[in-house]
């Protein structure tokens, strides 16, 4: 725990200033810093065995910032959409669009979506089975999700609000 606290003390102000520059918001910066610190505490035993703990803190901070930023992204609502059936959760209803959307994805994007998102395979396992690094797998999955989202918005006329999917056009 001492090595963690030493690395934290040495890095905290640099991490904070970098995050503040990225977020332009003190409260968001503090929220992300808290998440990073909690993650470091949860991994304190492993942390002390790292060669460069400060680099790990910077990497985790960057990843936490990216995750925080992704959660904030809002999609503009699309006008003139059909009302949804309130008896089923929207995401269950949206699954009816997937069979006609998946074939429209590029093959490598469809492959990673099917294995990781639809079949629940761990990204590390997917990376190993496909001869990829974990970083490459995460990037591929991110790009695949972006492509899937673009196709869903276009083909199924999906719109979102701050709580998630709110409308879509049913399969015809």
TrEMBL record:
The keyword DNA-binding applies. Gene3D superfamilies: 1.10.1740.10, Winged helix-like DNA-binding domain superfamily/Winged helix DNA-binding domain. The keyword tRNA processing does not apply. Residues 12-72 form the RNA polymerase sigma-70 region domain. Keywords: DNA-binding, Sigma factor, Transcription, Transcription regulation. Belongs to the sigma-70 factor family. ECF subfamily. This is Sigma-70 family RNA polymerase sigma factor. It comes from Agarivorans aestuarii. The lineage of its organism: Bacteria, Pseudomonadati, Pseudomonadota, Gammaproteobacteria, Alteromonadales.
